[in-house]
Amino acid sequence: MQRTVLSLKSQVSSLRTSNFTLQTRVSSRMARVGLVCCLIFLLAGCKVGPNFKPPQTPLPDTWVGPLPPPTSAELDLAQWWTVFQDPTLPSLVERAVESNLDLKLAEARVRQARAARGVAISGLGPFVNATGDYRRSRTVAATANQYQAGFDAGWELDLFGGARRSVEAATANLEASLNARLNVLVTLTAEVAANYIDVRSFQEQIAIAQRNLKAQQHSADLTRQRFQGGLVGALDVANANAQVATTAAQIPVLEQSAQQAIYSLSLLLGREPGALLEELSRSAPIPSAPPAVPVGIPSELLRRRPDIRQAEAQIHAATAEIGVATADLFPRLSLSGTLGTQGNKFSSLTNWSNRFWSIGPSASWALFNTGLTRSNIEVQKALQEQSLIEYRQTVLAALQEVENALIASTKEQEHYQALTDAVVANRKAVELETSLYTQGQTDFLNVLQAQGALYSSENALALSTRTVSTNLVALYKALGGGWTPTPPPEPKTEN
Fold first, then answer.
1. In the chain, N or C: fewer CB atoms in 10 Å?
2. Contact of 159 with 333, CB cutoff 8 Å
3. Domain hosting residue 431, numbered range
């Protein structure tokens, strides 16, 4: 009996020892599995390659050129064309935004970039494919059918952030395409306004030519009457007729230019050339520019101008592509599995006992590819450097555009004032010369010169009025006006 008890105690002790050993082995395996899982999660949180940092570009504190007169108005550039207070221009801009083909093309590119981002995001997750297969084979012994159906699944673990860098690049490309669309919008609104101003300017020049032609025809009639009375010679009649013909010859050219400007405006609205002829053929005044324009400070260009924001997004995309290329230096780890059924009859596919399955990880590592990976990294670095240079060029070009518009606007205002005075003086001179000629106190050549100077100054004043307004359009375009401003997204810290 005592031996039996001792034997039982020995067996219990052995079982306890075995259980402890088993628990130790299980705990050790679980610890290793946990360590591997933690390592995978830690690796999944890292991304190789440089993190994007917005470029720091020094900008001047103020503009070099002369600024417009100070104004209490706020800098609202979203709908700058309303400052002209023209009843037709806002409608033309609205229709252009709805129908312009260049803008529609830019919007299609935005949709393309958004879809490309979706493609990049899909690389982060697993995939599952349904498969089916039928084969009929013949051997010496017999002919057999083989049916197979099931699912294949896989998931490449993004251990070193190559897929996430790809998503980052696609997101930046989407941001670039959005700003490219805004840049088209800025250009479109400016072109609509400039073409509309051209239409009204040509119509004003036609009116000036017709008014001067009428006055010159009156002088020619007066000269012929004086010639018939023997008061003047045939030379005065010839000069008067020549002046009338010269002025009349300019009207068809101006009418041609006015109609072609309407055709250009129709194209901007995505319409056929003659679509706006009926609407715009009736003359109207040239839209006049306000005397004061709030221009802001140079640093606001980085926020306002879409082309600068587009260039910055392109740097971001190029930086992320370096990470995509760098990830190829490291191994790839995938999890894959297959589940299905098979048999020699189609009906056997529903029999669960005919199932087959497989699951397991796989790894690959490009240890040697004749420098392909590192050369690709250098390519992406060079592309990033090009993007940075293009960004700096874009900023400098933007500053130059504003400065050009400022100096042009200021000097054209001075030109306009001088021409206004010249028109007043020339009108008075024509009145005096005509009166003296009627009284026989001056030669007709003086009348011709006075009338020619008046026509020239009035035409120049119309052109200056157009230039003042188009310079304002150029200034608003240079400041990035023509779209509703939104605050730029805060840069995210990349790990």
1. N
2. yes
3. 51-123+162-329+370-478
